[in-house]
């Protein structure tokens, strides 16, 4: 159980397999995630923990953020192993690196750990042989919570701070 990161962990597992496979092994992987709100218990628990926003929507990285708005969705990606010699005609994007870690000790079970997040971002950059200057977009967890957003923002800033200088 990886809570909010199960789809990411699934895609990372496929990417890890591609990095260690021989050329004769399978060349495709499929990762899928879903969120279906079928029972009220999750709402009750998350509301009790103060994680559901009072206005019913996420205001991520906004001063008015007070939680997240729960939604439903299903998404999936197909990953294809390739090397530089293969045709790029069917490429929609390139999955250069993936990196996962565990927060370790935090203030609570749901509290993010900033130093651990920084290590994860730096690990992905290193694995992809990328510098912070190479990154043009950053996607975040963005829970819209008073605890999570500042920690996540601080982690991203600490890693990418060099870009502004």
TrEMBL record:
SUPFAM superfamilies named among the record's database cross-references: Thiolase-like
Name listed for the protein in its UniProt record: Ketosynthase family 3 (KS3) domain-containing protein
Entry keyword annotation includes Phosphoprotein: yes
The keyword Phosphoprotein belongs to this UniProt entry's keyword annotation: yes
One of the GO biological process terms: fatty acid biosynthetic process
Keywords in alphabetical order: Phosphopantetheine, Phosphoprotein
GO molecular function, one term: fatty acid synthase activity
Domain Ketosynthase family 3 (KS3): 1-165
InterPro entries referenced in this protein's UniProt entry, alphabetically: Ketoacyl_synth_C, Ketoacyl_synth_N, PKS_Beta-ketoAc_synthase_dom, PKS_NRPS_Biosynth_Enz, Thiolase-like
One Pfam family from the record: ketoacyl-synt
PANTHER family in the cross-refs: FATTY ACID SYNTHASE, SI:DKEY-61P9.11
């Amino acid at each position: 159980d990886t809570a909010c990161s199960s789809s990411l962990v699934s895609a990372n597992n496929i990417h890890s397999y591609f990095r260690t496979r021989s050329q004769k092994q399978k060349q495709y992987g499929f990762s899928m995630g879903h969120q279906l709100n079928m029972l009220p218990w999750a709402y009750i628990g998350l509301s009790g923990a103060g994680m559901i926003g009072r206005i019913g929507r996420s205001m991520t990285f906004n001063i008015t953020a007070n939680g997240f708005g729960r939604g439903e969705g299903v998404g999936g990606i197909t990953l294809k192993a390739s090397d530089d010699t293969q045709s790029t005609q069917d490429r929609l994007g390139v999955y250069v690196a993936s990196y996962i870690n565990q927060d370790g000790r935090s203030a609570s079970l749901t509290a993010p750990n900033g130093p651990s997040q920084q290590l994860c971002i730096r690990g992905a950059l290193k694995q992809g042989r990328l510098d912070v200057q190479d990154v043009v977009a950053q996607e975040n967890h963005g829970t819209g919570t008073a605890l999570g957003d500042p920690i996540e923002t601080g982690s991203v800033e600490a890693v990418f701070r060099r870009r502004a200088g």
